[in-house]
Amino acid sequence: MASIDPAVASVLDTHPPKEYSDETELLDSLDDDPAFESFREQRLQQLHEEFNKAKHLRNQEHGNYTELKDEKALMDIVNTGAELCVVHFFKSDFHRCAIMNRHLEQLAPPHFETRFLRINVDNAPFLVTKLNVKVLPCVIAFKKGVSVDRVIGFEGLGYSEDTFSTKDLERRLLQSGSLVREKVNEGHDTASLQRNHNNSGSRSQATKVDDDDDDWD
Questions:
Q1: Sheet with 146-152, edge to edge strand ranges
Q2: Counting Cβ atoms within 10 Å, is residue 126 exposed (0-12), middle (13-18) or buried (19+)?
Q3: Tens digit of each residue's pLDDT (9 = 90 or more) over 10-41
Q4: Beta-carbon-side half-sphere exposure of residue 5 (alpha carbons within 13 Å)
Q5: The whole model's pTM is what?
Q6: Phi, psi dihedral angles at 132 (to 5 degrees)
Q7: pLDDT computed for residue 29 by the predictor
Q8: Backbone angles phi and psi of 89, in degrees to 5
């Protein structure tokens, strides 16, 4: 994916295309923005291109965390429908999968360049076997149809009852190139705040449930 000017990226991240019906509306909203005055013609051209690209992606369900029921539909999106994909293989009654869902729901809207998908393992017997999915949650990142990273359980996220955050997951996915740039503000990590609140006073029980979730086949 082509490099984007930091100033253009900042405008797109702070003025999401979904909030504006067209590019003119966005430009009008920037009239009083001091940073906009420093834009050169080249930056304006890139802003134009990136705005249209973002709008096109959002019209194709980018920016949403979508559950698919059919594994063939999932394969079509991963192989030909989107350059970047993050797929969560889950079971609805697994506590850790619910935790992972909350973090992925937080990542999907700002990281609209990447498709965020999930599928119940019961609906994906072929992919579960082909991709050797044995421990849940299992999050696999794809780039042009090729697997570039795999998060098994909470491995590699520095997980503990208090410290696993959406930001941790974002950093991990950035390393594989399945996300284009850092976007999550640690102070607005509502998934982690909700998790910490839900765990207050009942951490021993949650830990027991987590221990039972890993192996499912």
A1: 65-68, 115-120, 84-90, 138-143, 146-152
A2: exposed
A3: 666 766 665 555 656 666 655 566 655 555 55
A4: 16
A5: 0.70
A6: 60, 50
A7: 59
A8: -90, 120
